[in-house]
Design brief:
The complex is a heterodimer of chains A (460) and B (408). Chain A contains 24 helices and four strands. Chain A has 460 residues and is mainly alpha-helical. Chain A folds into four domains: 105 residues, no CATH class; 107 residues, no CATH class; 52 residues, no CATH class; 116 residues, no CATH class. In chain A, the strands form two sheets. Chain A has a two-stranded antiparallel sheet. In chain A, strands 3-4 form a two-stranded antiparallel ribbon. Chain A is globular. Chain B is of the alpha/beta class and 408 residues long. Chain B has 14 helices and twelve strands. In chain B, strands 1, 2, 6, 7, 8, 9, 10, 11 and 12 form a nine-stranded mixed sheet that branches. In chain B, strands 3-5-4 form a three-stranded antiparallel sheet. The longest helix of chain B is centred in the middle third of the chain and has 20 residues. Classes of the chains: A mainly alpha (460), B alpha/beta (408).
Chain lengths: 460, 408
């Protein structure tokens, strides 16, 4: 199927971006691929900043202080209960970890709604899911947003190795996958305390973040790599007024000695030992293939072996230059062969729906709830392998999408013209059946809901 | 039925039922009355002939065949007068009619003669003669023309929250207050069937998933079964209609509450398997009937000062189409209920149902302009000035006299 330029523009926005806004299709119709590539060249395109957003250490220290103050209040209240029948109660302060989580969520959705195309955002979301942490793990909630801003976004169009190092040395990841507590058995701390190794992070780096499951590593590789990264930990937030909550290499926890990982020996150079293993993993051909497969599967199709091979070669040839890989996705013939693509992930669909209506929700609550209902709660994947990327996982949520489409439509249809929204989002891609179904709806809200549930809108 | 009494916070939260609050009918109050007006918009175009059937017209049963509502049919219609009978799904409306608390206007339509839902709804709610870009409705403009009630009772905050999904009929310069029923309207059988139909033609994977999700009952209906079963979710629709209409009534009944309100019910676009006697349309009419009962109950003593107007964008084809339903038409009914009305009457200049009588050979021909009915209500019930009605409420309608004698 040959797509005309408007159809290509619409497809570019759905497949690689976050869905068209009013005027988006016309704006890029003269050169859809060029527009995608141009977005990648904008300085700082994948970054999010905000005066109210806290860095990781700052957030961790604030939460520590918040918890300590709460405990003090509780103790005081207990003591007063004994003396007074009706102690005066101040209203409880809002839960700080949740406040931070919501502030971060707001900033992320604002960036998604404001993006012209959203290709860089989509890449950021992809990598954030590849290197996921979960806000449901104790201590991670206030750090999840900062983690994405600090470890993922600066490297989305940079080198894979840099992102890998930033991620594995980030407090959110070290807490999420337990490495912050992992102690070399023969380290000073290990000998004193009799506590030891936790393999969790080392295993997931090999299995999920770099080489891929069932590839070239063994259980011994996991154990030795875990020893290498002992001492990669977090400064206790209450211990240091200026650096508490931030990453540190603690030599007292670090397992001494050289370690062999995937066939190479790494001398004990302290923190550098772990960095050297990560750099070797980043350059391993298995990593290139793993990343290539995941990118192709996410953006193009479940199975496209030729594309995977080309992407893997590019990864190897460019030392994991992620911008070059993103460009290859855009120029791949496979990306433009068919408009019938994968289902949008729930988060992509929700954002696309809001972009289509042009409405900026005043309250983040319903947006968060919609993600929860559709099974993709923000920064809360069920496991370290992140949210599933195959359609089979998301198809059963179709009826929940219908409920949400209906809610969005009923709330917004008073201010949105569904005919215009149709023309501006999927018209160049839409079948005659889809057009007719929307135009013959019995009311504007129904037309808008049908638009959001049309195959051309659900898919990308 | 236990109805949830909305708090002010809930009122300010969203959309659904809308009330203009700060403006009250001062002239009517000066007469010692305290009138209430509630407008219910049925979106999708109600089949007026299936709701109120001309059982005395010799052409009626020829036109609708076994789908015709008859006094001696399987589901016997409820007689209104010697000529018209009411759909048996509406016993409450029938009771109100017999008590003189309900009237029906038949063969009515706005001035709109095309057949697009969106444009038809715009004309119905805007009060303008033609479709086009509009952002205010006739009900709101009628209110804006009334005298301001004085200080607004919102703790000094004059800026009322207007929900994003305000029905057009009540949008405009007069401040409006929005309320969302806790229960959102269900996605609806009709919506699901439209999607399923689309997926079946364009996306078999999505079609299969939706079929599985909707369950076998829905698939059976889509397969063209007899259309005699009540759609799944009819209970939800009933509950939603009753809850939102009942809540609206509670507000209108309050001594310090708003005096006019508007809400909209969807689902009336019955192209296939209309089910006027015992199917989908019967279920919808039953839900509407329940809504009217909830309004009467919750109005309490204020019911005698209440008028409810149930209106829709246009009617449907006089004949049944090839899929056991009806397509977009022209004239239909307006249902009026409330203790303030001079009820017990069907108001109609009957156009007849012979082929030559039908508008464009297919639709019930309109003989009453719906705007005249609405102008009559606004004039006699709320005391809106004639000139205001002709110029700003229904612009360009000076030649169209307000219908007299609707009120008791």
């Amino acid at each position: 199927m040959a797509l005309d330029s408007k159809a290509q523009a619409a497809l570019a926005l759905h497949r690689f971006g976050l869905g068209p806004r009013l005027g988006s299709i016309a704006a890029i119709a003269s050169d859809p691929r060029g527009a995608l590539l141009a977005e990648l060249e904008r300085p700082g395109i994948a970054r999010i900043t905000g005066a109210n957003l806290r860095g990781t250490g700052e957030a961790a220290r604030a939460v520590f202080d918040f918890r300590r103050a709460r405990q003090a209040e509780r103790r005081a209240a207990k003591n007063m209960d004994a003396d007074q029948a009706e102690p005066p109660r101040a209203p409880p302060a809002p839960n700080l970890p949740q406040v931070i989580y919501l502030d971060e969520a707001k900033a992320r959705f604002a960036a998604a709604l404001e993006a012209e195309i959203g290709f860089a955002e989509r890449l950021a979301w992809f990598w954030s899911n590849h290197f996921c942490v979960s806000a449901d793990k104790g201590g991670v909630r206030p750090l999840a947003g900062a983690y994405e801003r600090e470890a993922i976004r600066p490297h989305v169009l940079g080198r894979f190795a840099d992102m890998l190092l930033a991620v594995e040395a980030h407090p959110a990841m070290l807490v999420y996958l337990d490495n912050a507590r992992s102690i070399g058995p023969n380290s000073q701390a290990g000998r004193n305390r009799g506590r030891g190794l936790n393999e969790n992070l080392a295993r997931e780096i090999l299995e999920l973040h770099t080489l891929g499951v069932r590839t070239v590593y063994t259980q011994d590789d996991v154990t030795r790599f875990a020893k290498v990264i002992t001492g990669w930990t977090v400064i206790p937030p209450g211990q240091d007024q200026t650096r508490g909550g931030e990453f540190t290499f603690n030599p007292r926890m670090h397992e001494p000695g050289a370690q062999a990982v995937i066939g190479r020996s790494f001398a004990d150079t302290g923190f550098e030992q772990g960095r050297a293993v990560l750099m070797a993993l980043a350059r391993h051909p298995a990593t290139a293939e793993h990343v290539a497969r995941k990118l192709a599967r996410h953006f193009i199709a479940e199975d496209s072996p030729a594309l995977v091979e080309r992407l893997a070669a590019r990864f190897r040839d460019t030392d994991g230059d992620l911008k070059e890989l993103a460009k290859d996705l855009v120029s791949a013939p496979e990306a433009w062969a068919s408009a019938h693509g994968k289902l949008k992930r729930p988060g992509e669909w929700i954002v696309a729906a809001l972009r289509a209506t042009g409405v900026n929700p005043p309250d983040i609550g319903p947006v968060i709830q919609a993600h929860n209902m559709l099974g993709q709660p923000l920064w809360r994947p069920p496991a370290p392998n992140g949210f599933a990327d195959d359609d089979a996982a998301w198809l059963p949520g179709l009826s929940e999408r219908l409920d949400i489409a209906n809610q969005i439509a009923r709330r917004l249809a008073g201010s949105v013209d569904p005919k215009l929204a149709f023309e501006e989002t999927i018209a160049p891609l839409a079948s005659a059946d889809t057009r007719q179904t929307i135009m013959r709806a019995e009311s504007r809200p129904q037309a808008l809901a049908l638009l959001l549930m049309a195959p051309e809108f659900l898919r990308r | 039925m236990a109805l949830h009494t909305p708090t002010r916070r809930e009122l300010l939260l969203g959309s659904g039922a809308l009330f203009a609050w700060a403006y009250v009918p001062k002239l009517a109050r000066a007469e010692g009355r305290d009138p209430r007006l509630l407008v219910i918009v049925l979106r999708g175009a109600l089949d007026g002939l299936a709701a109120v059937a001309p059982v005395g017209d010799p052409d009626w049963s020829r036109l609708r065949g076994d789908k015709a509502l008859l006094l001696d049919g399987a589901a016997p219609a409820l007689p209104l007068d010697s000529f018209f009978a009411l759909n048996p799904a509406m016993p409450n409306l029938h009771r109100l009619y017999q008590a003189g608390h309900a009237a029906i206007v038949h063969a009515a339509a706005t001035g709109y003669r095309e057949r697009s839902h969106f444009d038809g709804q715009d004309v119905l709610e805007s009060g303008l003669p033609q479709p086009g870009a509009v952002d205010t409705g006739w009900l709101n403009r009628a209110l804006a023309a009334m005298q301001h009630a004085g200080p607004v009772r919102t703790g000094g905050n004059n800026a009322f929250a207007v929900g994003p999904m305000t029905p057009l009929v009540v949008r405009g310069p007069a401040p409006v207050l929005a309320w969302t029923p806790r229960r959102l309207p269900p996605a609806g059988d009709d919506m699901q069937m439209r999607l399923l139909e689309l997926y079946r033609h364009t996306d078999p994977v999505l079609a299969r998933v939706l079929e599985e999700r909707l369950g076998l009952a829905v698939i059976a209906r889509a397969g063209g079964m007899d259309g005699q079963q009540r759609p799944a979710g009819a209970g939800q629709v009933r509950a939603y209609f009753a809850e939102s209409a009942g809540a609206a009534a509670k507000f209108l009944a309050r001594p310090d509450g708003p005096r006019v309100g508007a809400l909209a019910f969807d689902g009336w676009d019955t192209h296939a398997d209309e089910g006027a006697l015992n199917g989908r349309l019967a279920a919808l009419l039953g839900a509407l009937d329940g809504a009217l009962a909830a309004i009467e109950t919750n109005m309490g003593p204020a019911w005698r000062e209440t008028a409810v107007a149930v209106i829709t964008e246009f009617g449907r084809t006089a004949r049944i189409n090839g899929t056991e339903g009806t397509d977009h038409g022209t004239a239909t009914v307006a249902l009026l209920a409330g203790g303030a009305l001079k009820g017990g009457r069907v108001i109609a200049e009957w156009p007849g149902l012979k082929d030559a009588d039908l508008h464009e050979g297919r639709d019930l021909r309109p003989t009453t302009d719906l705007r005249a009915v609405l102008k009559g209500l606004l004039k006699d019930h709320l005391r809106v000035d004639d000139r205001v009605l002709a110029e700003s409420v229904f612009p360009g309608s000076a030649a169209l006299k307000p219908m007299a004698g609707l009120l008791a």
